[in-house]
Fold Glycerophosphoryl diester phosphodiesterase.
Amino acid sequence: SVPLPHGLAHKSIQVVAHRGSSEDVPEHTLAAYRKAIEDGADALECDVRLTADGHLVCVHDRRVNRTSNGRGAVSALELADLAALDFGSWKPEDDAEATDDTRLTFEGGELRSVLTLERLLELVADADRRVELAIETKHPTRYAGQVETKLLEMLRRFGLDRPGPGESSAVRVMSFSSRSLRRIQAGAPELPTVYLMQYVTPRIRDGRLPAGVRIAGPGIRILRSHPGFVARLHREGHRVHVWTVNEPGDVELCVRLGVDAIITNRPKEVLRQLGRG
Ligand code: G3P
Ligand code: CA
């Protein structure tokens, strides 16, 4: 691990498990999120999409081809079709790396089946400590507002659409689409939103985000080439959540720049590097 400069407040950086502990366990499975909670992650990141019959499921790609033994677009499949697929076997287990804990998480149908957002919210509700959620809406244009409507309904059911009295929100909604974030703000004004960005466009170069958004979500590549961006965002009163930070050198860069959250496929290793593992 890379030694960090002495005296930095590493504990204030939130560590977010990207698609669960997805370096070790197939992404977006219940097993990956259970492992992330065991690993000590402060928050869980997940992508949500809508099935043909209107269920929100945690799947990154438009199609299920890469992460399951099935084929086709999530939006064209019903939940029952997805439930028949195996989302656990596509990722080859590296015998040298696998531990007994990791292997155990592959047992049982539910652990490797498609994960609904509802099941993920249950997992978080049952956790014996506070675990936050960073939920990303995918392809809001395709679904014409339905993803946001369903997401807000689901969060309301779990009492997660607003912070409890005197608390900060346990959930934030992220998107590359400012339109999607606007829909969330309109339906749940107290829910924090995160504007994800792959490039620094001239519009956001000066640190100004879309209206109502208080958190910037730049990719780590932006920080490597524009290290002053974090300070600029902080000066504008924004927080900065960076993805996807897996390399020790990038973790060190994030610490040096004072980012607020690190989104990573390997929360255990990042927590260790931050002196929390
Ligand atoms: O956490 C944000 C990050 O997940 C955005 O990229 O493609 O992994 O969803 P992607
Ligand atoms: Ca994502």
Summary: DSSP finds twelve helices and nine strands in the chain.
